[in-house]
Amino acid sequence: MAEMWDISDALAENNRFKAFGKKHPLELAACFSNLDHIVALLNRHGNVGAFQVGFFRSEGESVYRIGQTGVKHAVETRLYVYVYTIGRTLYVLTIGDKTQQADDIRRCKEIVRTFEKGAHHEQEKHDHGHAGG
Amino acid sequence: MSKKNTTTAMLAASLTGDPEAAARVAAHQAETRFVRTLIDMRVEKKLSQRDLAKKMGVGPSKVCRMEACNDKELNLGDVMLYSKALGVNMSVLFDDPALPAADLIKHHVFAVHDLLEKLMKLAHTVGGDDTISGKIKQFYGEVLFNFTLGLGNSFSKLPGGSPIRLDGAEPTKSGSPAKSASARLAVKA
Question: Does the beta-carbon distance from A54 to B35 stay under 8 Å?
Fold first, then answer.
């Protein structure tokens, strides 16, 4: 079996979750339940390329959206996550409905770019520190 | 604040500030368990939704809809078609807790017997001297022995029951043959 994946809210837009959870609690629960399924699939198969699931779609730059399923008359909901493969971590980013999709994706990608810039900077410091002895 | 090593239900509750969110996530998981199993089987077979739809002889949207619904919404005929397309046999077990234990035991014993019969037929198919048939024979012997020993131990605990002894074997103190290597039978192939 592949190494285990973690989930984290370190990069999450907390206010969006609070607001969305009040308005659409069942859709939010469905998305998190599906997130759990994605984590199980990653633990079993190792990487996102190893499986295809209808409610899990790439939006580019390691940002993925998880849709709601199994909710009658649901508002089309998207839970956005960042698949950080090196760290085997799924970072929950934000949640929204279809009308907010374009802005949500744009913001998610900015969050990821900032994070990856910081991670790259830390790696350079580490490497430089080692090289300096 | 980073929360690693947490569950998605706990994460939902934490992010929304609503403890009930965790229960709603758990409820959704319970309501979609069967659908999730179907998806897992398809992924295990390395099939996309489109691949499976082709095997089922339906449009891709049919598979998409099946995998997007909850368990109650699944149609039995569709599930049978889905599992057939995966090459997976489907069997249904109704476990009625109101039934007497004796009926439940009979049901499971007959099911085990059916499976052992299938194994026996396989042994004949591959030939009597083959390594595979030898291993099947060995497994068969171990199953028979451990069943007899285990059930015999249970029988001996009945009021008025007496121990059942097998040649060269002692019932284990724990009463569980699986826990004691000495209580197992090594059958020569």
Answer: no
